[in-house]
Every structure is written in C-alpha cells, then in structure tokens.
Specification:
The structure holds 2 protein chains of 2 kinds. Chain A is mostly helical. Chain A contains 11 helices and no strands. Chain A starts with a helix and ends in a 6-residue tail after the last helix. Chain A has one domain: Ferritin, core subunit, four-helix bundle (Ferritin), CATH 1.20.1260.10. Helix content of chain A is 65%, strand content 0%. The mean pLDDT of chain A is 97. Chain B is 65% helix and 2% strand. In chain B, a hairpin with a 4-residue loop joins strand 1 and strand 2. In chain B, helix 2 packs antiparallel against helix 3, helix 3 runs antiparallel to helix 6 and helix 6 packs antiparallel against helix 7. The chains are: A mainly alpha, B mainly alpha. Chains A and B meet through helix 1, helix 2, helix 3, helix 6 and helix 7 of A and helix 2, helix 3, helix 6, helix 11 and helix 12 of B.
C-alpha cells in the first residue's frame, strides 16, 4: 500500500477511535452515578474530542483534498469510519463503560507511547500530548475496575459480566492488516501485535487485584478498522451528523 | 436567580428592640458588611433560608444540565461540541460548590438530593422548558445565563462567606458561558435564512420564560425584605428584571432579531425599556409542576441517582476494604 494512502487510513483510525469513544462518554453527562463522575467522564470525553481534532485535521492534510476534522467527522457514512468495534459499543451500565474504557485506555496508552517515537514528527507531537492525557485516563479506569471488581457482590458481578462481554472486541486492537504493514515499514508506528503481551500483562494484573477473571483468548470480532461496523455506529452518526446533514453548507 | 421565591419563615421584620442581644450583634455585623462564617452564631431562620436558597440554586445547576445536555451528542462541529460539553460540565461543578456551601450550614448533599428527588425541593422554572433546536443552546447561554448573572454578580457580596465565595467562582464561568451562547447565536443570525429563522424561533420561545426567572414582583414581600436585611438578596426582582431587559434588547437588535413583545419600547423619561405583561399564570403552573418538562426532568434525575446507587455503594465498600487492609498491614 502506498505510504500516503496508508497514513491517511491510519490517522482516520486514530481520530475515529477518539471521536467515537468521546461521543459515547459524552452521552453520560448528567446521567452518571455522582456529580464527581459527571465531571470526570466529561474531562475524558473532552480530551478525546481534542485528540480527534488533531488526528483528523492531520488526516485531512495528508489526504490533500481540502477536508478538515469537521468534514471528516460529520460528512462520512458508517462504512468510511475506521474506529475499532470496542469504542462504539453502547455505554450499558457504569461497569460496561468502565470495562470498555479500561481495555481501550490500556491499549491506547501503550500505542501512544510507541507513537511518540514515530519518524513523522507530526504524529510524535500529537502522541506526546495525548499520552499525558491518556496516562490519567488509564489511572482512572483502572481504579474503577478495582473499585467495582472488589467492591460489593453486585458490583463484582456486573464488572465480571462487562469484562466477559467486551472481551471479544479486544482482539481487533492487535490485528495487523496492509495499512499497519505500510505504517510499520515506514517507521511511523508500531506493529499492533507487539503491544499484545504488554497489554495482557497490564490488564491481567489489574483484573487479578480486582478479583476478576479474564476470559481465555479466543475468537475476536473485528472489521471496524476496515469500515465493517456493528449496528450501533449508524445511530451514533445519526445523532452526531444530524445538523450538518440537515443544513448542508451552513456554518455554525 | 436560580432560586425563586425563597421563603424565610418570618411574618414580619423585627425591629432592633425585638431582637435578642445575639440577633442584634449578628445584624450589626451584616450591616457592617462583615462576612458570616459557618462556625459563627446565626439566627435559625437565616440558616434555614440560606439552605433553601443555596440548595435551590444547586438543584437548578444540576437539573439545568439536562436541557443543554440534550444537544451534546448533536452539536454541529467538534468545537461546539467541546464548548457545550465543557459548559454542562461547569454546571456540575457549580452544583458541587453550592452543595458544599450548603453543607457548611449543617445539611448533607445526600439529604438535599433526596429533597430534590422526592419533589420537595424546587429548582428554577426555566429548566422545565424543552430545547427543541440547536439555537436553543445559544439562547440559553445568552438569555438564561445572562439572567442568572444579573442576580449572581450582586450575590458575590452576600453576607454568608461560603456562598459569596462560591458565587465569585461561578460568576467567572457564567460570563464565559453567556459570551459563548451569544457567539453561537450570532453565527446563526448571520447564517442561512433557515439558521436565522431558528435563532428567531429560539428567542420567541425563551424570552418570556427568561423574564419569569426573576420571579414575581416582590416589592411587598416580607420574605424578600427579610432576605435583603440579611444581605442574602441584594436587589428586588423587578430591579433585576429591568436591568436584564435594558441590557438584552440592544443585543437582540445587534443580532437582527425581534424581541417577541409588541409593548416593548424605550421610555426616555424613565431611561429604561417599558415591556409587556408577563404571563404569571404560566409561571405558577410551571412552578407547580405543570411545565412542559417537569416530570421528565425529575424522572431523569431520579433514574440517574437510583441507577448509580450500586456504583456509590461499591466505591464506599472498596474504600472501607482498602482502609481495613492498610490498618491490618500497619498493625
């Protein structure tokens, strides 16, 4: 795959992950278990929206067709989105949201750490900024996995269920395709497979401390990175893109 | 004035002679603009009134997250989405400061939330109106936050220390919100014909409820007089409402929007705008629970609280386990 095409795809993946997860977290605002969580979840969502702007603006620049972050976020259909399936999964209860966040944060943290060494200084710079934020995200979601896993009987049951239910979406994080091959070749980013053991170590240690058990590695649901999504994404986009679609060419 | 018609529990204003020595000393401190702090003696009615006022304000911030939160997932650009999310987040923060200020008066956040959830406590009438279009988000920032600022700026000087300090922090953020709201509406007013129509429609729907936010005339109210004596209310409702109209009408003109009041006109003699009669029947109906969204707002709040119970329980249980382990380790 040609370098520029792969880079564009890769940047969409980074930007879309942040966009869709930020969107999901923003759905909690005003509905969370405590005011402190309304504040904290919004903080994480705001960080992710900021990262979306950086990645997608860079994607538009690389593509060279005059699309900026807003055009990419608001005017593509589901089949053109490149986020992993994990981030589009519905919020569920607070345990599902935190399990999703923890799986993602652990991976996101490891990935960004590698990307700070990218041969493309634009990628390295965004990654360095995002890494600071995501370090805190990981700390927070890890703490919630501990609290809920080792809290009450009910919270333990819910957390275990969430950990089990979302497991099938974690395999995709480490799956490499032609885009990744080109990225690795050009020294732009790491081999996704190389993050797997570190991730597993981190997740396992936290799960153990939280008295939770991890499912066995097995069949992975994938396709999001290539634009094959779950039914959920369409509804996210229906909300997200409503105004831009209903009033084409208006500025806001 | 996220707090409306706060009762003081008094039936007349005491003269100096009627006051006990403690009450007299207290009133003298208030008169001398000395802040009252949590540990100091205060009349029971002052304490209770403040709890009512501060908690009503806090509840308004929390319920107020809903109408605006309604558009977070549908904001039209990434920047607008971030601004709106940050704004609603600020409101959660304001709620927190205010519950903390109320806690200094000897009531817990849980007790206050219980009163909100069971419908005993009130919150501002304005949040029982729906946000139907994106322009409503701009209108809320411009009008609702604008009206709130009118009331809250003077309250920065109120007699109760923790409330006054909370107001100082809140006012800084509210004026930022108001500017953002006005900016969002400016974009619409200068946009396509559909956008301009959307902005006008939002002004039409939010204008009168915004004027109602200040509450009915309280010139004759003993509660209002008592609150002013205690310096936990600084201006009368009518004064603030007039100030709001005078400030807002030129802003609407600048946007090219029409204020939906045929009786609105500049009165050179008074140096103020005259404006039409407010529909107080509607106001009392909304206060009584019959606004377009009262049931929905409360139900949403109760649902979030109830569904979060197991999470709060888990956090408590975990903290207790952790403390016990640390203790066992130290022993």
């Amino acid at each position: 795959m040609a370098g520029q095409d792969a880079l564009f795809e890769y940047l969409l993946r980074l930007g879309d992950n942040a966009l869709i997860l930020g969107h999901r977290l923003s759905e909690w605002c005003g509905h969370s278990p405590a005011l402190e969580e309304d504040l904290a979840l919004s903080n994480v969502a705001l960080d992710l929206i900021g990262q979306t702007q950086l990645w997608l603006n860079l994607a538009g620049e690389v593509e060279g067709k005059g699309r900026n972050a807003d055009k990419l976020a608001y005017l593509r259909d589901a089949r053109d989105f490149r986020n992993v399936l994990l981030v589009e999964q519905p919020n569920g209860d607070f345990a599902v949201t935190m399990a999703r966040q923890f799986y993602f944060d652990a991976w996101h943290y490891l990935l960004l750490r590698e990307l700070t060494g990218s041969t493309d200084s634009r990628i390295a710079e965004i990654a360095a900024k995002a890494l600071k934020e995501v370090t805190y995200h990981l700390e927070r979601s890890q703490e919630w996995v501990l609290r809920l896993g080792d809290g009450t009987e009910e919270s333990h049951r819910r957390m275990q269920e969430a950990i089990d239910d979302l497991w099938v979406y974690t395999g995709e994080l480490f799956d490499a395709d032609a885009v990744d091959a080109a990225i690795i070749r050009d020294g732009l980013g790491p081999d996704p497979a190389s993050l797997r053991d570190l991730w597993l170590g981190l997740v396992r240690a936290t799960a153990e401390e939280a008295t939770l058990s991890l499912p066995q590695p097995g069949w992975a649901q994938k396709g999001g990175k290539q634009g094959l999504h779950s039914e959920h994404l369409g509804y996210i986009l229906a909300d997200l893109q409503f105004l831009q679609r209903a009033y084409p060419n208006a500025t806001w | 004035m996220y707090a409306q018609m706060v009762k003081t529990g008094v039936d007349h204003i005491q003269s100096k002679e009627e006051m006990s020595p403690e009450e007299r000393a207290f009133q003298e401190r208030v008169d001398a603009d000395i802040k009252i702090e949590p540990k100091e003696w205060m009349p029971e009615a002052y304490r209770k009134t403040l709890i009512r006022q501060i908690s009503q304000h806090a509840h308004s911030e929390i319920i107020g997250m809903q109408p605006e939160g309604n558009w977070i997932t549908r904001a039209p650009t990434l920047e607008r989405k971030a601004i709106l999310l940050a704004k609603v987040q600020d409101e959660a923060g304001h709620g927190l400061y205010l519950y903390c200020a109320a806690e200094t008066l000897g009531v817990s956040r849980d007790e206050l939330l219980e009163q909100l959830n069971n419908g005993k406590a009130k919150y501002s009438s304005i949040f029982n109106y729906p946000t139907l279009t994106w322009a409503d988000i701009g209108a809320i920032g411009w009008l609702v936050d604008g009206a709130a600022i009118m009331n809250q700026v003077p309250l920065q000087r109120c007699s109760y220390g923790p409330y006054s300090r909370a107001m100082i922090r809140i006012c800084k953020e509210e004026s930022f919100h108001q500017r953002q709201g006005y900016d969002a509406l400016t974009k619409l007013a200068q946009g396509t014909p559909e956008q301009k129509q959307m902005a006008q429609d939002a002004l039409n729907r939010w204008w009168w409820p915004s004027l109602m936010m200040f509450g009915p005339s309280d010139a004759e109210s003993v509660h209002s007089a008592q609150s002013m004596r205690w310096k936990i209310k600084i201006n009368s409702n009518d004064e603030l409402r007039q100030k709001f109209v005078d400030q807002t009408v030129p802003q609407a003109e600048y946007l090219g929007l029409t204020v939906p009041d045929p009786d609105l006109k500049w009165n050179a003699e008074r140096g103020h705008y005259d404006f039409g009669e407010i529909n107080w029947d509607e106001f009392y109906q909304v206060i009584a629970g019959n606004g377009p969204c009262n049931r929905q707002r409360l139900r949403t709040r109760v649902k979030a609280y109830e569904e979060g119970q197991w999470v709060r329980d888990a956090a408590d249980a975990y903290a207790a386990k952790k403390a016990a382990r640390a203790k066992a380790k130290a022993a």
